[in-house]
Amino acid sequence: MLATPPAARPPLHPLHALLLAFPIALFTGALLADIAYLQSAEIQWTNFAAWLNAGALLMGGFVLLWALIEAFRLRRDRVRGRAGLYALLLAVMWIAGLINAFQHSHDGWSSVGTTGLLLSIVSAALAIAAGWIAHSGWRSL
């Protein structure tokens, strides 16, 4: 039986890649809902953003746990550094999302405002950056 060459292996475990797609899509959706709320002042948009943010935190927690285990499991320093950066981005993303969830729990206009929008931008940008790093060739050994 032939071993799969390293270049042919996927950069991430397929389940990990699937889980990572959720925070990317949900944090980005929460950002778009915040922008829609700021443009229309329709309160339902802030409700959408809060639920999208909660879903991103739930799935992002599983992704973060997997990334931390993977970062500690890797053997080579170069790959471990990249996995560590990936885990760090996910951790900061999750913390920014959690603070954003607290911000969205406020009533009315104060639920989004400048702070909520900034936190949504940071969460979405970090999720996209983590996805970029994860899918750019990092291979687990």
UniProtKB/TrEMBL annotation:
It comes from the Bacteria. Residues 13-133 form the DUF2231 domain. Keywords: Membrane, Transmembrane, Transmembrane helix. InterPro entries: DUF2231_TM (IPR019251). The keyword Acetylation does not apply. The keyword Hydrolase does not apply. The chain crosses the membrane at residues 48-71, 83-102, 114-134. This is DUF2231 domain-containing protein.
